[in-house]
Design goal:
290 residues, six-stranded antiparallel sheet, 3 domains, Phosphorylase Kinase, domain 1, 11 helices
């Protein structure tokens, strides 16, 4: 490894609890290279640690657990927080865990909204929606445990192979529409439908990701509760009323975003891909569809 290492790394490894007692004994018995470099090389060769865990250990990280889940690697991050691939330490079931950002966790009103919405999302049960299993806390941070689905997003698929044939694109959008119908029937808006949030697994099943942006549209919360900062959604696929911070959002906002996503699947670009953020927002509001 290119990074200089010493026994401090070994101490971090001990404190991390990534190895059980038997693995430690095996490491001490079989490792013939002195120091941290030899130990980490031995662990990497036997796939006892992931590349991400090794990298984080070298950066100084010691904590790789959220409750009963062991963090394996970072999957992504966004406005709500970071998403990790994790494994339940007892059941050995893999899951995607969204660790809510400290900024949100420190805001009691935002936490209450997150919990209310998470309960509603956890009640969803549809083959085209990534399931949410439970919400828990780690210190003063909340995290959401979700189904982990292996595959690639529509964004990645089109970027790598070009626009989809019409039948294939239509099938992707049909599956997404069926999942959205289930969401809308339960009084929820997704608010961020876009190619990056549609995951396609090896069997061709589409899964809608990132319901962490979702907003309830029933009861006292109807009406487009807005985030504390910035716009809701992604500019290139955003319905005009979302950019205007409208207080009367409904399912048509998601349908508009789905139409923009269909356009991307067929052409490889967003409907209004040129210009600054403000110019693109105005095009969605004022320019006829291409």
């Amino acid at each position: 490894m290119s990074v200089s290492m010493n026994d401090t790394v070994i101490q971090r490894l001990r404190e991390s609890r990534l190895l059980d007692d038997e693995q430690w004994r095996e490491l001490l018995r079989d490792n013939r290279l002195p120091g941290a470099e030899g130990a980490l090389t031995w662990l990497k060769e036997r796939n006892l640690l992931t590349d991400w865990q090794l990298s984080e250990l070298l950066r100084g990280r010691r904590d790789f657990f959220l409750g009963k889940y062991r963090l394996l690697r970072l999957l992504g991050h966004g406005g709500m927080g970071e998403v990790y691939l994790a494994e339940h330490v007892t059941m050995h079931r893999r899951a995607a865990i969204k660790l809510i950002s400290p900024r949100i966790s420190r805001n009691p009103q935002a936490v209450e909204q997150f919990l209310t919405e998470a309960r509603s999302i956890a009640a969803l049960d549809h083959p085209n929606i990534v399931h949410a299993y439970n919400v828990d806390t780690f210190g003063d941070q909340y995290y959401l445990v979700m189904e982990y689905v292996e595959g690639e997003s529509l964004q990645e698929l089109v970027n790598a192979h070009g626009p989809l044939p019409i039948p294939e694109a239509a099938d992707v959008i049909r599956q997404c529409a069926e999942g959205l119908s289930h969401v809308h029937e339960r009084g929820i808006l997704h608010c961020d439908i876009k190619p990056a949030n549609l995951l396609i697994n090896a069997q061709g099943v589409v899964k809608i990701l990132d319901l962490g942006m979702a907003r309830l549209i029933q009861g006292e919360r109807a009406a487009g509760s807005q985030p504390q900062d910035g716009l809701l959604g992604s500019v290139d696929f955003m319905a005009p009323e979302m950019a205007m911070q409208s207080g009367s959002l409904d399912r048509r906002a998601d349908i508009y975003s789905l139409g923009c996503t269909f356009f991307f699947a067929l052409t490889g670009r967003a409907p209004f891909a040129e210009g600054t953020v403000v110019e693109r927002i105005l095009k969605h509001q004022m320019t006829p569809p291409p």
